[in-house]
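Action item from last week, closing it out:
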Amino acid sequence: MSLSRVNVSAATLTKNRTEDSVVPASGMCVTCVDGCIGMCEIGKSAYRGHEVIYPQPFGVITTASEKKYPVDYSHLNIMGGVIGAEGIEADSDKAVFSNVDLGLTFGHDNGLKFRYPWIIPGIGSTDIAKNNWEGLAIGTALAGTGLTIGENVVGMDPEAVIKDGRVVDTVDLKRRVRLFKDHQKDGYGAIIVQANIEDTRLGVQEYAIDSLGVEWVELKWGQGAKNIGGEVKVRSLKKAQMLYERGYVVLPNPTDPNVIKAFEQGSFKEFERHSRVGMVSEESFAIRVEELRAAGAKYISLKTGAYRPAALALALKFASKYNIDVLTIDGAGGGTGMSPWRMMNEWGIPPVELHSLTYNYAKKLADMGRHVPAIVFAGGFTFEDQIFKGLAMGAPFVKMIGMARSPIAAAMVGKTLGRTIEQHQVPVYVERFGTTRDEIFVTAAELRNELGDKEFENLPTGAIGLYTYYERLGQGLRQLMAGSRKFALEHMTRDDLSALTPQVADITGLPYLMDLDKEQSEKILSE
């Protein structure tokens, strides 16, 4: 059975003419007919070429791989018992799930504190991120978790002021940071500024530290969605030329007179802006870490993608050697605002395998007495059961789970519902709960009580949507942890999981379900 869909996808807005009769290997119709208008990916590529590489329509979607990996987190099950409780007194009146503590502190000085063990690990210059930032930033701040401003935000900002190749003022980055900081409560959560090659050249992180009061910055090696740099589409010739002048790779060349003429004639409607591929070396990594610390960065993290095992080992080694606070490891197939579609499906190490390797490498470092940073697992996580599994899989090294597509989805739905409320056009599916924000959002009373009427009424509904989604994840995770008798995150272990097949046991190092507790069970029965 093929693990991939070839030649057709909702992501590329393509389909087969003979949908029930397709060649498995090529994805082509069994009978490819002369006269077909080209509904499949091959056909569409015949007239739109490179445009069909990317998911469509750009700017209003997020996308993730549809490849069926041989192993995923559903091949692990959560284990529970009937004896005792860890992190709370073993008393049925006290060991209730609402008493599970999901809070955590981390960083070299334990100065970072989150109310929940998850983070949004990097959404940057795409329209889908920019258009939903209000909900994402405010919702994250109210929930007391983390949000990472991804790459290229300054470079894409037409109002950014750049002198001698360095940024001195911004509109977009300043807005993104302030939306979070203005709603942060009691020091919980964090806003992080990430940088790629172009950002580093522009001095984005130094500006964020010095001018915006950002304490946590992140180096970026890559992500799970693609193994090249950040990409967006640009519909304005003027903006494409601006980006070209700022040093980005822009295709086709927006300064070429023939390209300008073709764009004006409507031959194509979008330029592509690409970031460069990073070239990692230990010397450059060490220098950059020292530069950021000298600039005043209090916390430094590194994000890496689904590269080959040696690259993962290098990330862990550098993070250990140079005392990085947090390391995010993003498995293949992860969501994105724009990545080459075939690349997103066919490159890299999938999450379960990558995360299993991470645990092995981290344990090796710990056994040698070396520093292991707080690790974040990312790659398709959406619900509390997956969060539990990721935390347990990497315990005690994994402190948080990274999610991007699902928080964006929650913020987008909240925003859309707010619009329908204002227009008095609440959909029937939602109207059964009510027609006002107080009736529709189940956390409204809690937020109104905490914030007061005025601040609550001014909240964007995208923020309420994200906050409410996080509230659901929190309660669900507490229930799962209570069932495993773990009442605080530090008590979670790999023993809380079991592999459903021998193959998964071999990959993860977790016990196969039928081998679990074998000796203990024999002892119980023999006594």
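Closing note: Residues 461-483 form the longest helix (23 residues).
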